[in-house]
Amino acid sequence: MLRNAIPPTSTVTYRGDDEIVPDHHVLDPDSTYVARLIEGYDIVGIRRLYQSHDSSAAYVHRRLGVDPTGALRMETTPLDLEGAEAHVEGVVRDTIAEFGLLETGDQVVLGLSGGVDSGSLLMLLAAYRDSGAAPGLNIHAATFQDFDSKWSETFDFARGLAQRHGVDHHVIEAGYAEKVFHLNRPMAQILMHLMETEDAHLAMYADHHSTRRVLEAYGDEMGVQKIALGLHTTDLLAGMLNSFTTGFDVGPIPRRQVGPYTYILPLAFTPKRELHLYYTRRTGHRPKQTTPNQWEFNPSDRNFYYYLADQIQWYWPGIEHWMFTAHARNAVDMAARYRECENCGGSVVQQPAVEVEWSGLCDVCQLLDKHGWIARS
Q1: How far apart are CA 63 and CA 59, in angstroms?
Q2: Are 197 and 371 in contact (CB under 8 A)?
Q3: What is the pLDDT of residue 66?
């Protein structure tokens, strides 16, 4: 049924006249089966939207549109690599313009790992700068040295990419995180130790928070408080699903104020597949897949939300336009709810659903303090 775009939850399957068979049942070739639709929607009409269209194009961009009457239509645009490049640049240009992400004379810190997402973002922002859309735009690419990144191919690629596109590149030494968080050992060592504790499920959160906070601290040194991250559609949809299911309040997309810092997400409406095509076209080679960190393999956490986000995009291509803009309209102003962590200086939003007395420390610093990794003066 899944192969034919029929949700198993919408049917009950019978063998013969009245024997209901479970999902794990192995079909008997000598028996007759009937799957009865138990929902009232027009499954034939809906399935028609997903009928394949013959095309020699390398990629078909799809978007499920909704007419004012409620009628659905699947818009399809066949694209070769050159067309995909133009499409992605157009989407990012429109995103920046519609949401006011960049202005004349702006300075922005870009977190550059050297991977597909951040590398593509650097190329896209450089193209936007070179188009004259934001005169005086100055991009500062910052690469956080993590584990063996100093000697890795992605590290070299990040440096070369910034050079080729006339972007200032700075390497943030691994020890910088120790200073920002007042640690008594390297952050990389802490994350590995954390994986051996009952708090292993928080390691990825600690990794992401520490990286963002280090970018903020670097931005402070440069006098820059606007930060660009290469989070694409799936990243943000997965985070929104997490927010919906946990009640954790998140800021608007693709522009978000976090304390004194403005985070911009120019790739919010660009799916990962299209980024891959853009990257391949611009660099002339396929992206290299890096091995995820140990704490990114938990299927019951981040991976599951990503899986769901990818499934949603397949069934409703373009859903991010509805979800992100609706969320941005309804998002509550968090400015009055921010507190500053007394250890790392990061901004923490007080969650309305969690009635916990403010301890003075953000969640990550509480975790670090719990395990004795914050140095005591």
Answers
A1: 13
A2: yes
A3: 86
Q: How many C-beta neighbours within 10 Å does residue 318 have?
A: 19
What is the distance between the alpha carbons of residues 13 and 30, in angstroms, rounded to a whole number? Answer: 16
Could you tell me the CA-to-CA distances from 292 to 204, 242, 289, 295, 311 in Å, in that order?
A: 11, 20, 9, 8, 21
Q: What is the pLDDT of residue 148?
A: 45
Rounded CA-CA distance 136/107 in Å is: 8
Structure tokens at 87: 């499409």
What's the CA gap between 109 and 127, in Å, rounded? 16
- pLDDT at position 22 is 93
Intervals of the chain under pLDDT 70 = 52-54, 146-154, 289-301, 332-336, 352-356, 377
Burial class (CB in 10 A: 0-12, 13-18, 19+), 257: middle
Q: Can you give the pTM of this predicted structure? A: 0.91
The strands making up 138-144's β-sheet, listed across from edge to edge, are 168-172, 138-144, 107-111, 226-228, 261-264, 255-258
CA distance to 215, 240, 368, per residue, from 248 (Å): 23, 9, 21
Paired tokens of 340 = 């500053």
Tokens of 287: 């992206």
Report the C-alpha gap between 266 and 22 in whole angstroms.
Answer: 46
Spatial CB neighbours of 161, under 8 Å, sequence gap ≥ 6:
112, 114, 119, 122, 123, 167
